[in-house]
Amino acid sequence: MDAALLEVREVTKRFPGVLANDKVSMSLESGEIVALLGENGAGKSTLMNVVYGLLSPDGGELYYEGHPVKVRSPRHAIDLGIGMVHQHFMLVEPLTVTENIVLGNEPTKIAGVIDFSTARKAVAEISKRYGLAVDPDAVIRDLSVGMQQRVEILKALYRGAKILILDEPTAVLTPQEVRELFKVVRSLVDEGLAVVFITHKLEEVMAVADRVVVMRDGRVVGEARPSETDMAGLARMMVGRDVVFRVEKKPSVRGETILEVDGLEVLDERRLEAVRGMSFDVCAGEVVALAGVSGNGQTELVEALTGLRRPAAGSVRLSGKDITHASARQSIEAGVSHVPEDRHRRGMVLEFDLAENMILGDHRLEPFSRHGVMKPTEIARVTEERVAAYDVRTPSIRVLGGALSGGNQQKLVLARELGRDPKLLIAAQPTRGLDVGAIEFVHQQILAERDSGKGVLLVSLELEEVQGLADRILVVYEGRIVKEFAAGEASDEDLGLYMTGGGGDKFAESTEVSVKGLGT
Amino acid sequence: MLSDILSPDVFAAAMRIATPLALAAIGGTICERAGVVNIALEGMMLFGAFVGVIAVTYAGNPWVGVFAAAAAGASLALMHAFASVTLKTDQVVSGTAINILAGGLTGFFMEVIIGHPGTTDPVPRLVPVFDFPVPSAGFFAPMWRWIDVIFLSHTPIVYGTILFAIVAHWALFHTRWGLRLRALGEHPRAADTVGISVVRGRYSAVLFSGVLAGLAGANLTLEQVGSFTEGMTNGRGFIALAANIFGRWTPGGSYGAALLFGFAEALQTKLQLLRDVITIPSQFFLMLPYVLTVVVLAGVVGRAVAPAAVGKPYEKG
User: Inter-chain contact A103–B194, Cβ cutoff 8 Å?
Assistant: First the structure.
């Protein structure tokens, strides 16, 4: 039998305090797509960085086409025929597509003068051969993320890659771009390449992979063919226990009204009406989900409710008290907690340690400070307590926020926001970018909040999340609430129809709106 | 009246004054394009100016001084590269230290070698390259005089700088060297992953800028003044950094910006000489180069974008 194109044998890689790869073995053949599946921090990227020569292993061997190799550097990996597309693109933004692709392997005339016409021709040729259309003279920073990723793939192909490693390639893409990417990956494999697809998303594995290698805690825990398994089986391997995709929940016990929104209108940055007269309420002990396609006023609504943006008209009341024009601080004091949609920009300060992040917003209050002086021991005590209660995995509370994985960052934000015992929790896309284990945890916390008599307003783009958590579903479209459903009343198709401007009694009005939308 | 002010010698002076600024500015361009801030241009220029004069004092030939000046600039640049690339110290701190060091070194060696502080004795200078007989009469005589004064009256480094600016500008956008340099200052990790050595690229760029700053010093002492005075660079290294920004991190733009400063300075000098004719307080003329700086800054620099990774030490892995 022929030797595998690439074989990894018992590779071990240690970082201070962490065993990132523990005797990991896997192999790769030409013409197949192997998904490397695992939660964030399972060691997938570490393993591929070893293969790509960015990290040197502490033990184990690599075999390339049957020969043992030590990959010394990315350059060496490229020379062997291994290309990698990183999560953060390695593209020089002010340079053109062609310049980026040939960088480091420039065709030259005499005296180091770059032969741009040869370069352009080479780029055109590979982009035609693999069906990756791209303008060779476009400047990178003018391209969409999907296009930039295409340039990264071309870069690897230009260097003669036989193996292409894609590190979480779909994380930054729109659903359409994801479909395009899958097509491209399939055509690469048809041309005889081998593709390693790093991901934590089960649907993607099912959709694109020929074979799945599952990693957990630095070890390979299983291997399967998508055709011979299902998502539940893969999830069990990945997390190490059964994963509940749909959360069990008790029936809602509705209490008094907590949030009353009446005729709210909010403008966006361009002074256009983003929220066009929304009225709804949220009661104690219920989860109200706002379902909708991104950009239909959800962001502006949440900002208006949390004091980050001034409403143009309408009123907001919390337990009867008017908070329409409350500042962010007054809103927190009134009992509104907020899990922002962008946890890096608004949820936390990446350069602060966990303890500092834990008290943001409450830093000037007792017991964290007195007379303007912080009380470090008290801050540390509360942080330790909450880090344990919310299962934030970290070596210490002195670690910087930016060093945590996405799931742990979100747990930290939840710990802070729920720790101050709010009346209302506003959670905007609380599980964006998280892996299944962390998603499950966040969902449980949201339901626990509900069951303890708090009101929850959930803003989500994920239908599954909306269906799983909500007691009432409000569908938003173009800044208005176009439909309300009780839990379990609507199918995904029903929701999708209203979310995109179609559906039932509103049909006539909505088509008018969408036609207008097309014109502008 | 206007012809008195805008006489050919003003334009010629502008080119002379622009030369050290342009050399240092292009040095700054190359250095920053590779991702390293070089505020030590001032010190490298001063040290080059000094070492150039000392070398000529001993060797007699001004060309020996030019080479010595370039080497002197490069030696300080090596320190800057070591500190900022290898040791990853803050590039502004390292640059400031080198500026202070250059002032101290030149002052100290003035005492040791020359025997007194202040100014050295005059040394032989580089002479103008061309020496055409200018016809004193005839239809073309006035025009010929203009051309001769503005374009044909200069010393070697002045011409060399123009030539170099053109070549470097072209090379930045058409050669492998230029492409890699631009990548280094924008996204060093991208360069690293395709096998371009960030350390080597940055070292050579910093050394190159040191050579150019040293040559700028040589132009000051061995072409313009003919002797060395302590602190004589008088902020030119910093004006050069500004010229580099005006010129949007391109050699051609740097030269153009330097020429603009040179023209303002030459005009200011000229207007001061004419103060008996023009009854405007001389302070206004002194202001001119600075007003120009502010105007250009407000108009041009708002849109200039520095290389993304400039000033950031590169951490591997």
Answer: yes
